[in-house]
Inverse folding.
């Protein structure tokens, strides 16, 4: 099995990478059978963005704070763990956004796309679902669209629903909604096209972020699920991604 090991900049992650390279060797990423990011969830997401075009599976090793998408550190043989691991396919969101100068931005997101106010003024956002306006003038700090894999991250912190991986759903969740105050968001088919329009953008500017890619002064955004940039993530068979999401719903 050919490995490509990549670590974050923490001392512990670098030390583990050096240990793995001595034990299993290091290959060029394009020649590897497995990409092993060593760090936290954010570092894994960066690797997904950097290397998804190679169509090589990822097996993350947790040296971060949460590590929901990562595997626990283990002294077991890495090849044995990976050979017995469970496969999860992540389909990202595809974002197309435009700013006040009509500049177009394209990005993908494996966790979520979030549109947020840029100043002290709350954002004012219109929402269309499959070209039908469903909400006019949502006043809020922001709105996010989450994949099932990302539903336990920022989406959950914003009181959005946790989504099972096999549900074929997306979460549309407001962030600190002011009007209408009681709107809690919506669960949508993954085939849904979501359009967000920032109104009163001169006095209420907003930015949009797709995982770690941020674009400023956005006025329009179109978001939908995409199969074109899917990634395979491997999980230790002792705790699959499905099991992690299920346990999170009973965690207090």
């Amino acid at each position: 099995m050919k490995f490509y090991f990549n670590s974050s900049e923490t001392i512990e992650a670098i030390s583990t990478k050096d240990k793995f390279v001595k034990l299993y060797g290091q290959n060029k990423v394009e020649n590897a059978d497995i990409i092993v990011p060593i760090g936290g969830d954010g570092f894994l997401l960066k690797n997904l963005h950097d290397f998804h075009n190679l169509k090589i599976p990822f097996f993350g090793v947790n040296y971060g704070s949460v590590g929901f998408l990562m595997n626990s550190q283990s002294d077991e043989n890495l090849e044995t763990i990976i050979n017995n691991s469970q496969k999860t396919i992540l389909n990202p969101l595809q974002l197309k956004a435009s700013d006040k100068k009509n500049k177009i931005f394209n990005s993908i997101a494996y966790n979520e796309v979030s549109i947020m106010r840029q100043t002290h003024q709350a954002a004012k956002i219109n929402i269309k679902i499959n070209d039908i306006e469903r909400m006019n003038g949502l006043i809020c700090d922001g709105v996010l669209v989450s994949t099932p894999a990302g539903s336990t991250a920022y989406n959950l912190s914003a009181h959005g629903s946790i989504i099972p991986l096999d549900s074929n759903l997306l979460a549309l969740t407001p962030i600190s909604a002011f009007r209408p105050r009681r709107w809690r968001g919506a669960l949508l088919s993954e085939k849904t096209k979501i359009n967000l329009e920032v109104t009163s953008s001169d006095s209420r500017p907003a930015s949009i972020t797709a995982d770690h890619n941020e674009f400023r002064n956005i006025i329009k955004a179109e978001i939908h699920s995409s199969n074109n940039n899917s990634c395979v993530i491997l999980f230790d068979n002792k705790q699959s991604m499905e099991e992690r999401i299920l346990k999170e719903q009973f965690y207090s």
User: Anything to note?
Assistant: The first strand starts at residue 3 and ends at 7. The chain has two domains: 3-90+230-248, 93-225. The helical segments are 11-24, 41-51, 78-83, 154-157, 241-248. The chain has a mean pLDDT of 94.
